[in-house]
Each structure stands twice: as structure tokens, then as C-alpha cells.
Design brief:
The chain is of the alpha+beta class. It contains six helices and twelve strands.
Length: 256
């Protein structure tokens, strides 16, 4: 947290200079508690603290100032399949593929999104689950796309990978803010973007981005590296280990 205190002291000293706060452009200084989150054996999740300082013209005159934080990443192609019950059996029916769906998507805001911005602004900046922009791999009927998008959001939300929380960003003295976002144990590895928006009178006045790296560490990291960068050796080793276990099990049962 030393970085947090250093940022605030520097920022507040700068902003408190006579006449400067009123004249300057909207300013946003965000930070995150961890730039790296390591996943290793026994990982049960983590809590990411996003905090910072802000100065917006008019914030001292009683105008409502809001903060929205969007934590997203990494994007990946995904196929969404719809299941139907036929003769008492659930089978795969229609499906669609999205080219770039975030593996994780969480939104935290100082008030409910509907009370902060209109639908158009929320859609431009993806401020909420209802405004998540997914690109289908091919042509698709708009109504069908909305259905599959809603299905993907519901599936990810039940798995703890998508979420939205209004009234979860606290703003102190119209200058300091903080938000806490839960990272589940099933979170995918990769580079995440934490984008913070300063909003006033339903307008986005400033935005800033910080990156967070989530990676596997220890033996799990070694296996992930082998599977990605040395896939042939990884596959050969997996087959060899399976054969050895099968041979050992066969010998054990033959003795009995």
C-alpha cells in the first residue's frame, strides 16, 4: 500500500494548489492492489482492491460524481450450445460461436448503472452485463444473437466469472475511491484490464487503465507452460504416464 499513499499525497498536494483544481481538466489516478495474481495448488480465489484519486470540475459544487470500474480479460473464442429435451433426454440443439468473449468480466460502480448513464453511453463503454459486446463468428439473426449472449452471460455468472455490483464503489470526500472485486478460483490465466471511468452528469469525463496479470505458478505453471509451448512432449508424457499406470494396475490385480 505504500504506492497508494505516495500517489494520494502527490495528487492531493498538486490538486490543492490555489485555483488549480477549478481550472484543470478532469483527472483520474487509478491503482490496483496487485499487478500479479499467482494461481497455485490450493488457490481458492483472491480479492482485488482497485483504488485511486479523482478531481472533476464541479465536484465541490454538489454535482453527482460517479466511478465505474470494469475488470475484463482475457478474450477468447467460445461456442455456445443450446440444449433441448427430446424424449426425456437433453441433447445439443442450435449453437453459435463468438470470436472474442471475455473469460472474466466484472463491473463495480458507485451507483446502479441505470442511474449513472443512458443506454447508449453504457453500450459504448460496456458498462454492465447488459451492454457486453460480443462478436459472432458469422452472420446471425439479431434476436438469436441476443438469446445466445444472454445464455453465455447467465452461464458465466453462475460460474462466478461474470458479475455486476452497483453501490460497491465508495467515494470519500469526492476525491478518493475504492472498490473490491472477487477473483474466483476458476478464473482463466492471462492479462486483465482494469478500466476506471469518471462520470458526471451522465457523461464520461475521464478514463484510465491498469493491467493485472493472472498466471499459474509452481507445478501448475510448469504444466501450463508444457501444454502451451511444448505440446508434443506434454502429450507424449501424458500418454506414457497413462500406460505406466495401466501396466501397474494390471500387475497389481494379477497378483491378487
Amino acid at each position: 500500500m505504500r504506492r497508494w499513499h505516495h500517489i494520494l499525497l502527490t495528487f492531493l498536494a498538486f490538486a490543492s494548489m490555489p485555483g488549480l483544481a477549478a481550472a484543470q481538466e478532469p483527472t483520474l489516478v487509478p491503482e490496483v492492489s496487485q499487478r500479479e495474481i499467482n494461481i497455485q495448488y490450493g488457490f481458492t480465489g483472491a480479492e482485488l482492491l482497485l483504488f485511486g484519486a479523482l478531481v472533476a470540475p464541479g465536484s465541490s459544487s454538489g454535482k453527482q460524481t460517479d466511478i465505474v470500474v470494469v475488470l475484463k480479460g482475457p478474450v477468447q473464442p467460445i461456442i455456445v450450445r443450446e440444449k433441448q429435451q427430446i424424449a426425456g433426454i437433453w441433447v445439443n440443439a442450435e449453437s453459435t460461436e463468438f470470436r472474442s468473449a471475455p473469460g472474466y468480466f466484472a463491473v463495480a460502480s458507485s451507483r446502479p448503472i441505470a442511474d449513472i448513464v443512458d443506454d447508449k453511453t453504457a453500450a459504448i463503454y460496456e458498462l454492465g452485463l447488459d451492454y457486453l459486446q460480443l462478436s459472432p463468428a458469422g452472420s446471425i439473426d439479431p434476436e438469436e444473437q441476443r438469446r445466445f449472449t444472454a445464455g453465455l452471460v447467465d452461464l458465466k455468472s453462475r460460474g462466478g466469472l461474470y458479475g455486476e455490483s452497483g453501490n460497491s464503489v465508495t467515494i470519500s470526500e469526492s476525491v478518493l475511491y475504492q472498490a473490491r472485486i472477487q477473483i474466483p478460483s476458476s478464473v482463466p490465466v492471462g492479462t486483465y484490464t482494469a478500466e476506471t471511468f469518471l462520470i458526471q452528469d451522465a457523461r464520461v469525463l475521464a478514463a484510465a487503465v491498469r493491467e493485472v496479470e493472472i498466471r499459474k505458478f509452481g507445478f501448475e505453471g510448469f504444466l501450463a507452460w508444457m501444454a502451451e509451448d511444448m505440446s508434443f512432449i506434454y502429450g507424449l508424457a501424458a500418454v506414457t504416464i497413462s500406460l505406466l499406470f495401466g501396466w501397474a494396475a494390471g500387475n497389481f490385480f494379477r497378483r491378487d
